[in-house]
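If you are new to this repository, start here. Below is one unmodified record pulled from the training split, so you can see the exact layout before writing a loader.
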Amino acid sequence: MINNVKVLGRTSKEAPDVVFWTGSRYEMNVKASYLTAVIEADYGMQEQWIAVLINGAPVCRMPLQKGLNEVIVFRNRDAGIVRNVRIIKEVQPMGGDGANYIRLTEIKTDGELLPVEEPKLRIEFVGDSITSGEGGIGAHDEMDWVAQLFSAYDNYAYKTAEALSADYQVVSQSGWGVYCGYNNDIHMNVPGIYDKVCALVSADGEGVYGSQKAYDHSSFKPDVVVINLGTNDSGACNSEAYTDPETGNVYKLSKTADGKLDEASAKAFDEAARAFLAKLRKAHPESCLLWVYGMLGMDMEEAIKDAIKGYREESGDSNVDYCRLPDTTQDAFGSRCHPGHPAHERAAEVLVGKIREIRGEM
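And here is the target side for that same chain:
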């Protein structure tokens, strides 16, 4: 670890400077005329993108090459001014794409790094492509599946944390759900990978920098856990059935004519959602669990609210809440038919208000 560099995002004890998840960042307060960051990166096909922010404003966005990268953060600046620097991982871990990660290995500067202040609040976001920032950047008609079209800082999670002066971390994966993925694959469920550092990242079948290790939840104690899941479970209702190649079992979520989950599907989703809330409570005994939903349709709202109600009744846990986020209007889409900048701004505004309400703040 480099002194006075704050690392946010899930890491392993073996490699506390290696980050995997979207929104992970290296933050530092720098008093110098120049700063260069040396960052190691690896990936298979989808390059690792980063954004550099100085005093909260984006000044650079770029892909990293495999191996070591020298990133000039700033040069020829007033050496007497302290600047806050954030180097943010812009893209989610891409499952099946090898050892995709970034690692800050060295800082080159003529000045000094000063301590970063502690936050007022800590938030964990658990979600899918919306939370991963898929389509958050790029033209409206861009549809290619590429890392370039993901953005972590122009995202409701980052915007919410900034508005609340909070530190945050993310566990999210495009296409995944609570019970199953958009394609009915029951293995594509976020609860199943939640307790690992980053189970999606491996090379030659082995973990990378502790990615497959059990995550130490005590290393980041969120005041609020925001769950934004259900969109892909809804999408599964419009996809073909999934046949598990190992068991031969067939899985398919379906809806009735009125657009609600049918009885079997509702039961499967409800059980998965309740079990996940119980898992989150075990990991975070004191956190408020806040389920949010709605940026890409409202189909699952009733099922989500039913699961929350059922969990509260069976567990006696009252520190669980729900918040509807604004649907993405036609003028607010980014690329890949996903929420763009205006949609993330609106969602963050609503979420900030809800978290302040929960915490009794004006």
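Two things worth knowing about this chain: The two ends are 38 Å apart (CA to CA). The longest strand covers residues 101-109.
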